[in-house]
Predict the 3D structure of the following.
Amino acid sequence: MKRYLITLAAFLAIVSPLSAQMITNNKVLSWSTSAGQNGTMKIVAVNGQYFEAQQTNDKNKAAGTIKLYGAILDGGNKIALINTGQWKEVWEGTVSGNEISGNLVAGSAKYTFKITDSVVVKTAANVALPAGEYQGVHRHWTDNLIINADGTYKRKSNGDPGTWTFDGKTLVLKWAKWSAETLVQTSPGNFSCPAYKFTLTALNSQVNVSTVASTAPFTNGKTLKWNTSAGQTGTIKVTSVSGTKFNLDQVNFNNRAAGTTKLDGEVKDGKVYIYNRQWNENWVGTYSNGKVTGKINNRYDFTVTE
């Protein structure tokens, strides 16, 4: 695939062959252009600064899957893509967070494009939105919205795509071509926009309106403070979260010689359970107002705060 890009790369400054975070093998991205086209790109191969993607166009499904060849440029700050097939396109864009935007040239025609990270399944609160079909009644349209478990969605009638985030109460729809919109859950499976007319209502049995239990405040990468009625204090760092279970690294400021203690925990039946298997401790508590309070082995009080 490198031979397709070597000419293009010669005209662009390749500072270092670093991989952009968005370009990883098997990742699915959403794309749209100012010409009104949109669809998905799946990264199917990565080799250093070069990669291949399979593109589908929701507005031209008959075209099937198109292979694109890409390069990561300028130390991961820029992306170049070329379509060597029927349309002979060159895409050149700048990476900004989870978005790539730039210009697409096809012959004498020139358009702008945007590529966004589709895989935004959960927010910091680690709450999943039930996938399925929702009826949308908007101030500008009425249509069904198909919400996917991978963090993407699209309108049923025209394929307008986007990505969503949900914190257990607020649903944010980030459209690929339009401004983001915010709705609030009024009841399981029902959402309403407080600013203007826009509601979403779960339609079919595939939508399980019981949401996944939140592991808040135990979200991946977060460092929390803890203390006990026995006079111990320290920090807990969340090292991983999977569903309602999580893993922690604990440091005790009163016993630094112990180093880092590995803990694991889970949210079950409305309670938070933390297990210190090294010291045979079971921490059982409840989460409220940004902190977890409870008992260690039914003896000492503990508090975990953000």
About this structure: The radius of gyration is 24 Å. The chain has three domains: 2-117, 132-202, 223-305.
